[in-house]
Write a structure and sequence with these properties.
It is a single chain. With 510 residues, the protein is an alpha/beta fold. The strands form six sheets. The protein has a seven-stranded mixed beta sheet with strand order 15-16-14-13-19-20-21. Helix 13 links the parallel strand 19 and strand 20. The protein is globular. The protein starts with a strand and ends in a 15-residue tail after the last helix. The relative contact order is 0.12. The model has no long low-confidence stretch (mean pLDDT 92).
Length: 510
């Protein structure tokens, strides 16, 4: 009997990957292509959606060739994607109307300030579970309407389609301008500020407030069901799952029960706690989000703490400062010193996300003296991820009736043992890593395989989860408390940052 596989497409912030998994949840092959990051102005971050689609066209056959697998052996396709990144394209030609505006982009900060005053945070929290923030898609749509002449009217006339990355890729995979499916799933729709968190439908009040016409929005579907068959790349293979990348990681970590939590350490870091079938409104700066929905079953919800910059800080250390030549070198460099030497880095490159939600914050380095070496800076870079995780966990424990007792971790940064030990130390709970660290991709594969009957049920998926590593806390409580206080003082500096106005130029001589 010919073995079949499930294909997972992970369209991330920095690259697009295609991974094949077998019935035991083991990675069979992987192909990956990075795409260019565009920074046209301070605070602006953009991607070329066409480049991302072309990269997918390359990695799918590469992954099949690497595994020696025929397309007929692919049982189903699942997608995971960078959330909130916004693409608008022409329904007739399929051409994007601008570069995609990435979730890290902060150009909508003035709109956020206006929303906080009118109509106020509760208006949004009651409907979509999200506070006003540069993070979410609706503000990007509004920004494009306000800055691209004629775009809003074209959208109202039905000429323009909106989607996050999974919508864009599914549309192209299923035919594009020739009948492509225009769909999204509940996890991605829930990050737009346009979906009602309880009804899981587009909310009329929110559509009216942002001035977004329903005709441009995709149909909202479950996270795991048969959407349709691919017509490009893998003709006839069913596309059966789509999840935002962090919900996919929660699913891949088999956090199917309330109280189970995971944190994915990538470009940013995202900690999700399964709260069951009822949404829990956070009182401490977390997001209420849809965790997943399987077919027509009840949806599961989660509390989420989103950290904008973690792995991106390592990239900055490598690419902008040039102090290391590859990301893994940062652990070696950090181990050349015993501690941070009193140096703390707050990487508020895109403001601060959970639990503070301050788009006006800016990155700072605190405690620089002549004693500080690049080793101390490397250690401060890693420790910034640990302290930001601690802030999110403190908020999560305050919102949840059950304190966090264990944290499952995944993502590229979990290969850094020094960082994982530091996270365990500052949280004072065990940190565990699964055998398959690529749980975003695995979660999309699990959901797709579940919908296609490749795996029978959730318990079968749990049996595939195996522990690869564990870190136990080993920090003196008094030292932990003192260091946390120092970190919080550094954050206060970040929040107090003010750009001084530039002096006016003297008038020209008469």
């Amino acid at each position: 009997m010919v073995e079949r596989h499930v294909m997972s497409v992970d369209q991330g912030t920095n690259s697009t990957r295609c991974i094949l998994f077998d019935h035991r949840g083991r990675l069979v092959s992987v192909a990956q292509r990075e795409h260019q990051q565009h920074f046209p102005r301070p605070g602006w971050v953009e991607h070329d959606a066409v480049e991302i689609w072309q990269n997918l066209r390359r990695v799918v056959p590469e992954s099949l060739d690497a595994a020696g697998v025929d397309p007929a052996q692919v049982a189903a396709i699942g997608l995971a994607n960078q959330r909130e990144t916004t693409v608008l394209w022409d329904r007739r030609t399929g051409a994007p109307l601008s570069r995609a505006i990435v979730w890290q982009d902060t150009r909508t900060a003035p709109l956020v300030e206006e929303l906080a005053r009118r109509p106020g945070e509760d208006f949004f929290l009651d409907r979509c579970g999200l506070p006003p923030s540069t993070y979410f898609s609706a503000l990007r749509i509004r920004w494009l309407f306000d800055h691209v002449k004629g775009l809003e009217q074209r959208a109202r006339d039905g000429e323009v389609l909106f989607g996050t990355m999974e919508t864009w890729l599914v549309w192209n995979l299923t035919g594009g301008t020739d009948g492509g499916l225009h769909i999204t799933d509940v996890t991605n729709a829930g990050r737009t500020m346009l979906m009602n968190i309880r009804t899981l439908t587009w909310d009329e009040d929110l559509l009216a407030f942002f001035g977004v016409p329903r005709i441009m929005l995709p149909e909202i579907r479950s996270s795991a069901e048969l959407y349709g068959d691919a017509r490009a790349l893998l003709p006839g293979v069913g596309i059966t799952a789509a999840l935002g990348d962090q919900q996919a990681a929660l699913f891949g970590q088999t956090c199917f029960s309330p109280g189970e939590a995971k944190c994915t350490y990538g470009t940013g870091s995202f900690l999700l706690l399964n709260t069951g079938t009822e949404p829990v409104r956070s009182r401490h700066g977390l997001l209420t989000t849809v965790a997943y929905r399987i077919g027509d079953q009840k949806p599961f919800y989660a509390l989420e703490g989103s950290i904008a910059v973690t792995g991106a800080l390592v990239q900055w250390f490598r690419d902008r400062l040039g102090l290391i030549s590859s990301a893994p070198e940062i652990e070696t460099l950090a181990r050349t010193v015993e501690d941070n030497g009193g140096c703390y880095i707050v990487p508020a490159f895109s403001g601060l996300f959970a639990p503070r939600w301050r788009s006006d914050a800016r990155g700072v380095i605190v405690g620089l003296t002549s004693y500080i070496t690049k080793g101390h800076l490397a250690r401060a870079v890693l420790e910034a991820t640990g302290w930001q995780t601690r802030e999110v966990v403190d908020a999560m424990n305050a919102d949840s009736s059950v304190p966090l007792r264990e944290l499952k971790v995944d993502g590229g940064m979990t290969a850094d043992n020094l960082l994982m030990q530091f996270v365990a130390d500052v949280l004072d709970v065990p940190v565990v890593r699964p055998m398959v660290a690529e749980t975003v991709s695995l979660g999309a594969a699990y959901a797709a395989g579940l919908a296609a009957g490749y795996w029978p049920d959730l318990e079968g998926l749990r049996r595939n989860w195996h522990r690869a590593g564990q870190w136990l806390p080993d920090m003196d409580p008094a030292h932990r408390a003192a260091e946390y206080e120092n970190w919080q003082r550094a954050v206060e500096r970040s929040l107090g940052w003010v750009r001084q106005p530039r002096p006016a130029d003297p008038p020209p001589d008469a």
